[in-house]
Amino acid sequence: MVNIGLNLFKHELTPAEVVKKSREDRFLAREIIDGIFTDFVELHGDRLSGDDMSVIGGIAALNGTPVTVIAIDKGIDIHDKLSKRNGSPEPWGYRKAQRLMQQANKFHRPIITFINTPGAFPGKTAEAQGQGEAIATSILESMKLTVPMIAIIYGEGGSGGALALATSDQVWMFQNATYSILSPEGFASILWKDSKRADEAAAVMGLTPKDLLAKKVIEYVIPESRSHTRVFNLMRKRLDDEFKQLNALSPQDLIKQRRARFRAF
Amino acid sequence: MDLYNNQKSTSKIKRDASVNDRIPDGLFLACPYCGVQMYNKQLGAFRVCDHCGYGFRLQARERVELLTDSFEEMDSEIEMMNPDFPGYADKLARAKSQTELGESVLTGVAKIEGEKVALGIMDSYFMMGSLGSMTGEKITRLFEYATENFLPVVLFTASGGARMQEGINSLMQMAKVSAVVAAHQEAGLLYLVVLTDPTTGGVTASFAMQGDITLAEPHALIGFAGARVIESTIHEKLPKDFQRAETLMTNGFVDQIVPRSELNQVIAKIVKLHHVTEV
Ligand SMILES: [Zn+2]
Fold first, then answer.
1. Which of A60, A207, B182, B225 could form a disulfide bond with A122, CB atoms 3.0-4.6 angstroms apart?
2. Residues B45 and B80 in one domain
3. Which H/E stretch holds residue B232?
4. Is B278 part of a structural domain of the chain?
5. How far apart are the CA of A111 and the nearest CA of chain B, in angstroms?
6. How many domains does chain B have?
7. Is the Cβ of B85 closer than 8 Å to some Cβ of chain A?
8. Domain match, B41 and B112 both
9. B46 and B176: one domain?
10. Looking at the complex, does the CB of residue A225 fall below 8 Å from at least one CB of chain B?
């Protein structure tokens, strides 16, 4: 294992090092949910075809205020990881998220999504059941929700599979997270026909929080610490502050601002 | 904000550089779908295999000719600000001269069998129809124009997916276009998608799957993940027609499969049925 932590704040990691770290199980979805919120009630199923375990969803309280929480989870042990395909949602995972987003909209609850995925699952059933349509609809419906939404990428932010849950008012990233169009391996194999040049690809892809902050793809980088409690306390405070500001906007202005955020690209 | 400063060029379409014109009639071709061999001239004006009905890939300007009574192009001069990825500027320049397009989509206002529509046609010959930020910008402006002017949008999709050279900006186009699709939808206007061969990746995972009505050309390849990626994930071969239009229709993602020669009539009929009647 890599010696985590010692140099974390001493020198800046290379993009390839950030990629490596983003794939380690530094934070787990349930740990984040329990660390930030109280009274989490998990809700299952998309009401159409099934329940995708890689997407954990439910309602909870943020400093006493009801919110909807949706988190992509990679799993803990090998069995858990296999059943969650290492955090690659099926179409019914995205449809479960859509259902919970609509529910949040009905009850005027802010939405927080936590993202850690190499990408949407490229399986046979996933394809037959409309993985493309599921992501497309998640993005489109997110553009219409009249409640504030903040997306937090805490590990890998892989392509459309991440964007499906990151079409929000703000996007935040953990210090050692990535967000990209494709994995560096995939990028290298498509552009240079050599997946072994992944480190080189990572360097030119601009996938680190620092790069993405400069491009205004994200609004905030969450500093990591060995004390997870410290990280969660910081996030709880900041979420609370940002939702207070976003809640002050009229639904029309909120939607206008969200759409303008993406119109700028 | 210069959202509506569409540099409209009224140039009529010349069809001198089309792939079609460069292939001699006597040339022998194999249908990419059924494999049957035929002379180029057997494909006819619509470039359709007379054995299986597959429509050979068209350039956007060829499709305009086949489909529309008139076409007024928008945003023909749109320019990428700084294509700074190594080799990207050269690739773009080559694609532009090969296709006579500014980007991988051609947009404008068209009449199809007398029906006025905002029309977008993606071109798989322009960097494989990949979704660059100017591709997204042109489609976004098309929707904005349509919403302002109460027009339906008809969009022909053809794409190999993301524009790798643009990285995260390519991904953001999926959300950018979705935002204007939402506004167009809220105005009660029709968005008609025609899926053509091939429609894959990020385009499938966004505006190709957001239409009110979705048509497809026969045997068009339509999918999210690439077939080889799926096969290496599940460790088995996919059935022959797994990502073809007919399978998508069986699975509930396509309304109708329409032969190329009938597309203009079917589109006009659907658009007509969405005319707002004064009560
Ligand atoms: Zn054929």
1. B225
2. no
3. helix B227-234
4. no
5. 18
6. 2
7. yes
8. no
9. no
10. no
- ipTM for this prediction: 0.95
Q: Is residue B49 part of an annotated ligand binding site?
A: yes
Query: What is B127-194 written as a DSSP string?
Result: GGG-B-HHHHHHHHHHHHHHHHTT--EEEEEEE-SB-GGGTHHHHHHHHHHHHHHHHHHHTT--EEEE
Supply the pLDDT for residue A1. 41
pLDDT tens string A210-242: 999 999 999 999 999 999 999 999 999 999 999
DSSP per-residue codes, chain A = ----STTTTTSPPPHHHHHHHHTS-SS-HHHHHHHH-EEEEEE---SSS---TTEEEEEEEETTEEEEEEEE---SSHHHHHHTTTT---HHHHHHHHHHHHHHHHTT--EEEEEEES-S---HHHHHTTHHHHHHHHHHHHTT--S-EEEEEEEEEEHHHHHTT--SSEEEEETT-EEESS-HHHHHHHHSS-GGGHHHHHHHHT-SHHHHHHTTS-SEEE---S-HHHHHHHHHHHHHHHHHHHHTS-HHHHHHHHHHHHHT-
Task: Tell whether B172 and B159 lie within a shared domain.
Answer: yes
Q: Which of A85, A94, A140 to mutate to test the interface with B (most CBs of B within 10 A)?
A: A140
Confirm if B222 and B249 have CB atoms less than 8 A apart.
no
Same domain assignment for residues B232 and B132: yes
Q: Is B52 annotated as belonging to a binding site?
A: yes
Bridging pattern class, strands A170-174 and A220-222: parallel
C-beta atoms of B172 and A265 within 8 A: yes
Q: Supply B14's token pair.
A: 């010349």
What average pLDDT is seen over chain B? 91
- Residue B40 and residue B29 in contact, taking contact as beta carbons nearer than 8 Å: yes
- Strand pairing report for B153-159 and B115-122: parallel
Residues B32 and B156 in one domain: no
Residues B81 and B117 placed together within one structural domain of the fold: yes
Could you tell me whether strands B213-216 and B191-199 are parallel, antiparallel, or unpaired per DSSP bridges?
parallel
| Residue where the block lists tokens 């990209």 | A180
Beta-carbon contacts of B182 under 8 Å, excluding residues fewer than 6 positions away, are A140, A143, A144, A259
CATH class assigned to A16-263: alpha beta
Residue B237: pLDDT band with limits 50, 70, 90: very high
- Set of chain B residues whose Cβ sits within 8 Å of the Cβ of A144: 182, 186
- Give the pLDDT band of residue A11 (cuts 50, 70, 90): confident
Q: Are A74 and A118 in contact (CB under 8 A)?
A: no
% of chain B exceeding 90 in pLDDT: 85
* pLDDT of B54: 97
Q: Which two tokens stand for residue A142?
A: 């997110």
Give this prediction's pTM.
0.93
Q: What local confidence, expressed as pLDDT, does residue B19 receive?
A: 54
Q: Where in the sequence is the domain holding B46, given as residue range(s)?
A: 16-56
Task: Identify the CA nearest to B224 among candidates A162, A136, A82, A93.
Answer: A136
